[in-house]
Amino acid sequence: MAKYANAGELRTPIIVEKYTETQDADGYPVQQWVNVFGTGAIKVKWVNVHGREVYESMGLNLKEPATLTARYSPLINAQCRITKVGDTEPFEIIS
Fold first, then answer.
1. pTM for the whole thing?
2. Strands (E), 1-95
């Protein structure tokens, strides 16, 4: 089902990162989170959960659940994580 958002509602900047494993100069594996869009952030519509969803998320021990609406990109998937610009704690993508 398609979700709609006006361009003016896409105002929360986020950074989308994926987990990658590379090798350093000595051949040892190095794991790190890399921004999938290079150095930039994308803007999304961020809506915190409300109503019945709050109690469902409390049962799942989720911290600050929210619904994000963004323009489609094949770079974003469930293995990525999201960080609001200015926050230090990343968010996990559930679905």
1. 0.76
2. 12-23, 29-35, 42-48, 66-69, 81-84, 91-92
